[in-house]
Amino acid sequence: METNIISELITFIEHAPTAFHAVAELKEILKQEGFEELKESEKWKVKPGKRYYVTRNNSSIIAVKAGKELDNYSFHVTASHSDSPAFKLKENAEIEVAKKYTVLNTEGYGGMICQTWFDRPLSLAGRVMVKNGERIETRLVKVDRDLLMIPSLAIHMDRKVNEGRAVNKQIDMLPVLSGSVKEQGEVRSLVAEELGLKDTDIYGMDLFLYNRMGAVRWGSNREFIGCPRLDDLQSAFALTKAFTESTPAEYINICAVFDNEEVGSGSRQGALSNFLPDVLERICLSYGMTKEEQICARSRSFLLSADNAHAVHPNHPEKSDDEFPVVLNGGVVIKYNASQRYTTTGMTGGVFGSLCEKNDIKTQLFVNRADMPGGSTLGNLLSHSFSVPMVDIGLPQLAMHSAVETAGCEDVETMIEAIQAFYESEICQIKDGMWRI
Length: 437
Ligand code: ZN
Description:
about 30% strand, binds zinc ion, alpha/beta, nine-stranded mixed β-sheet, about 425 residues, 9 helices
């Protein structure tokens, strides 16, 4: 069972070099499960008992199972993100170097570990806007061959390379495209050829570098998976899987995957946007709910924000709080932070913890060392636009934001079980601070 899940996860991640592709894959999974597409630009008639999904920018997606129970209803929501740190191609990216090479001009997207992008085969993927008669349409593109590489500077030219060398993204991180001088427009031609189009058919491009390396299972018992973009496609996959496979209690169940978490979530389709509140309000309007009823429903609701979590690093255990040794294959991580960068409180963590205990699901707790600020995620940003009780959870991993991250194989199944239990539960805040689980 577990092996099947891991190979499904690997296929999903390999088909998802960018957030656009991730959402296309999620759409496909949902369609196969009988979900109908709702369009933001059209009127909705959401029917109790039916299943839907809606996308924004083709890079965020919200799937809905509309419950039948309309009295005292509430929302069971999970959230994760579709994007990962990468390098985005600039317009007119081709740059000539030493009259011999063509390199591509890029800028960083999110906080990647730059060193891990050197000396590995890379290629281009993303979306392009294409002219089709009187319309401009979105097309996905993935150049499926080893096209680019960012070669390291030899140690002989940089003797201090192993003593902590700074990496300048404008200088060090430009990938080499060719051993000859190519004119501007070469990338556009290459993409057009890939799509069977003319160069002049392409009007806009959002292209990213992606790591060509596939996933590997490793460890003496093959207990680990090493793979690009585990943060946060591993959660997006597990949450969607649990969502489609759960038999929901009579609530409105939502599975949301947002773009742009790695750059602060502040876009039209990010967790800070009105995407989720809009979707929920429109469902309520379809149900004929008043504004007051909607606010009541929100107060009863519960949201799990899932993003990967740091396991104790074997060579640097001192970077973690000794009292909270998060380990790979140790189960779902519940994250706490006094400054509320994670939304979990004693109350919401207790509610979720008791649900996991009831269903025999392994959990572990994460907190940052008090002398380290740590990372942040989409949960607390989501609460700006959709304020409901929340818990920040995640799957333990090593090497977060490396071009190849490592996670535990067993944890994927554990996360799916936890989320399935959540969707099938009757978790509900009966009154402020009092919960049914
Ligand atoms: Zn993340």
